[in-house]
């Protein structure tokens, strides 16, 4: 499954990144285009040749999500059907999303189209989207230099269609940062749709315990939902709940073609043991230690510098430079990209999907609302990191569901929350859960399934959900267990070998050293029995 990390850095607690934005080449194009009519859209997979006089070129494309077209003007009926079939396939490969770049030649040259041709091409694109049941949104348009008296423009258009076997498109984003960096406040502002009053009002709905309200610091993990409709308009968690009921009454607002970002807000620094389990599942953050965890887990990250309303512009710039230095250090080798405009946000989302080294940086305020719209644009078009083929391969494997949370719900019984790592899980399916204290696995039945607070009948690999287990004895369950297909014939182990890198530690690692092992969502104490080829292990700084 795909997951992203957003690391929040408050102005009063600095950690790491920088602002060196990668931009598309610009310059004057010396070519004219004589061809008219529609031209076949092709996805780019090879590096483009370097042209003379530095004409504008798009960078090489890796993601299957982004496609280029020169123009789509008055295609024949046969050609139109072919283009619509192409779009349907691309949406399937992009798991419901694709971006078309209009006015770009097959080799990446930014030629642009005159206004009349651009309108005709967008009209054709809308017809294609209607044919396959998708929606389109123009992300951005811009003029390009061209040897002509009339202006030429290029456009990027987002095509979105929820696959037939899904209710919505969703991504999971883990939010991690130091204490008082503004994590909960930012999520409250994003998911509730109202700015903070400067005293933490926006975060109150995220708190789960009385002591969290009293101290203003979270000690538990909370899940929040931010949605975007087909036009890119933000839908808060409240509106999404309303829309689920509105479908039954045929209201104008439904969850069709909706893109959901599911945020996992992790606790503050004093509760690091609470962070580690979701980190292994979803992401990691911005302090040096958190950044090291993200590197070890190979999870892509982007950074939010919050509370910019409390300091001068120069302080923000120094913070970004400090982050840049940390991200560029050997062993990290990230490419920071400061996002300061809508165009930057679109480009950041595109590059973020293409290269794990790209690290977008946002500077914003949850009180004044500064640059919040840029973060929303980024979330709206942030594509999944895995394609349909990779998910299909996971779905072909036997069922494995990792248990993260355990609840008792009145009139429902025992409920577990977690992530399906492989296979497919259906209502009524028979699974085994364990290992129990005696090292065994016990049979159970999945009575019902809910995803993002909405019922569903089928759960697929990479999706998070809650499963109702009826009258299954809750005392037999604990966090870290797995629910698997009986065909897997699961076994347990007490010893294992691991290849490790010691990032940060106050002491050396040696035989007999006691550690806490985090494997997926499992946290277990263990003892180092032997170090092959070494007597002790030092951390990298030594």
UniProtKB/TrEMBL annotation:
TM ranges: none
SUPFAM superfamilies xrefs: EF-Tu/eEF-1alpha/eIF2-gamma C-terminal domain (SSF50465), P-loop containing nucleoside triphosphate hydrolases (SSF52540), Translation proteins (SSF50447)
Presence of the UniProt keyword Nucleotide-binding in the record: yes
Keywords from the named record: GTP-binding, Nucleotide-binding
Gene Ontology molecular function terms on file: GTP binding; GTPase activity; translation elongation factor activity
Pfam family, any one: GTP_EFTU
Translation elongation factor EFTu-like domain: residues covered: 413-483
Lineage top rank: taxon: Eukaryota
Domain Tr-type G: 286-383
Family: Belongs to the TRAFAC class translation factor GTPase superfamily. Classic translation factor GTPase family. EF-Tu/EF-1A subfamily.
UniProt xrefs under PANTHER family: ELONGATION FACTOR TU-RELATED, GTP-BINDING PROTEIN 2
Protein known as: GTP-binding protein 2-like
Gene this chain is encoded by: LOC107561969
């Amino acid at each position: 499954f795909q997951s992203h990390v957003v690391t929040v850095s408050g102005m009063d607690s600095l950690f790491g990144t920088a602002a060196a934005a990668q931009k598309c080449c610009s310059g004057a194009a010396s070519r004219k285009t004589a061809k008219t009519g529609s031209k076949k859209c092709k996805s780019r997979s090879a590096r483009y040749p370097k042209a003379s006089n530095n004409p504008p070129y798009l960078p090489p494309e890796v993601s299957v999500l982004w496609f280029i077209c020169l123009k789509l003007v008055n295609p024949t009926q046969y050609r139109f059907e072919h283009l619509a079939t192409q779009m349907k396939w691309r949406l399937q490969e992009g798991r419901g999303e694709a971006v078309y770049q209009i006015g770009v030649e097959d080799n990446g040259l930014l030629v642009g189209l005159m206004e009349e041709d651009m309108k005709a091409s967008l009209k054709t694109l809308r017809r294609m989207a209607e044919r396959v049941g998708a929606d389109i949104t123009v992300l951005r348009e811009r003029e390009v230099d061209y040897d002509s008296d009339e202006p030429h423009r290029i456009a990027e258009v987002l095509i979105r269609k929820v696959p037939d076997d899904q209710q919505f498109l969703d991504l999971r984003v883990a939010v991690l940062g130091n204490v008082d960096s503004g994590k909960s406040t930012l999520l409250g502002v994003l998911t509730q749709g109202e700015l903070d009053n400067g005293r933490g009002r926006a975060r109150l709905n995220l708190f789960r315990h009385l002591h969290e309200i009293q101290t203003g610091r979270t000690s538990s993990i909370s899940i929040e939902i931010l949605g975007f409709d087909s036009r890119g308009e933000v839908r808060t968690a409240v509106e999404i709940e309303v829309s689920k009921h509105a479908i039954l009454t045929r209201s104008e607002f439904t969850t069709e073609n909706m893109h959901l970002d599911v945020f996992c807000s992790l606790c503050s620094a004093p509760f690091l043991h609470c962070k580690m389990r979701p980190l292994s599942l979803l992401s990691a953050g911005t302090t040096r230690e958190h950044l090291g965890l993200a590197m070890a887990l190979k999870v892509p990250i982007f950074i939010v510098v919050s509370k910019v309303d409390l300091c001068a512009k120069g302080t923000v710039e120094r913070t970004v430079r400090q982050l840049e230095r940390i991200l560029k250090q050997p062993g990290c080798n990230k490419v920071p990209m400061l996002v300061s405009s809508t165009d930057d946000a679109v480009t950041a989302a595109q590059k973020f999907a293409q290269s794990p080294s790209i690290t977008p940086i946002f500077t914003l305020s949850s009180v004044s609302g500064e640059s919040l719209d840029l973060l929303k644009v980024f979330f709206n078009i942030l594509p999944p990191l895995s394609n349909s083929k990779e998910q299909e391969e996971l779905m072909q494997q036997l069922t494995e569901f990792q248990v993260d949370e355990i609840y008792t719900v009145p009139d429902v019984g025992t409920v577990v929350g977690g992530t399906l790592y492989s296979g497919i899980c259906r209502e009524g399916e028979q699974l085994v859960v364990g290992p129990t204290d005696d090292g065994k696995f016990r049979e159970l039945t999945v009575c019902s399934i809910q995803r993002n607070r909405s019922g569903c009948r089928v759960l697929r690999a990479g999706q998070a959900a809650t499963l109702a287990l009826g009258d299954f004895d809750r005392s037999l369950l604990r966090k870290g267990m797995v629910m698997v297909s009986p065909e897997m014939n699961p076994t347990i182990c007490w010893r294992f070998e691991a290849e490790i890198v010691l990032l940060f530690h106050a002491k050396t690692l040696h035989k007999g050293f006691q550690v806490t092992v985090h494997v997926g969502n499992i946290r277990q104490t263990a003892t180092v029995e032997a170090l092959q080829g070494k007597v002790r292990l030092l951390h990298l700084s030594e």
